[in-house]
Amino acid sequence: MMFKRDDVIEKLKNNIVNIKFIKRDGSTRNMKATLREDIIPQATKADPLSQKKIRNISEEVQPVWDTDVKSWRSFRWDSLQGANNVATS
Asked: Of the four, 27, 32, 55, 71, which is 20 to 30 A from 46 by CA?
């Protein structure tokens, strides 16, 4: 299944999204992810990996904030199986 990268990124910037993808080991992973500025932590010098400028990520990989584990994670675009907004009450 193909997803429009711009559409998924727009969802991530505005919502918490349930991302479903195939991990390198072949297993399926679901994560609640976002790129919302009001949810992701600000980059600090104490945590250089959180600084977007330092992270050298290829075009095939999308870094996202996993809201369950409260940490940066990533998925490969070619492994994406689903991207649906998480229902909020």
From this structure: 32
Which single residue is written with the structure tokens 């870094």?
A: 63
Residue written as tokens 């689903």? 82
How far apart are the C-alpha atoms of 63 and 11, rounded to whole Å? Answer: 14
| pLDDT tens track for 19-71 | 999 999 999 999 999 999 999 988 766 665 554 544 556 789 999 999 999 99
Higher pLDDT among residues 7 and 86, named by residue: 7
Predicted model pTM: 0.79
User: Of 3.40.720, 2.60.40, 2.30.30, 3.40.1350, which CATH number belongs to 5-85?
Assistant: 2.30.30
Rounded to whole angstroms, the Cα distance separating 64 from 5 reads 13
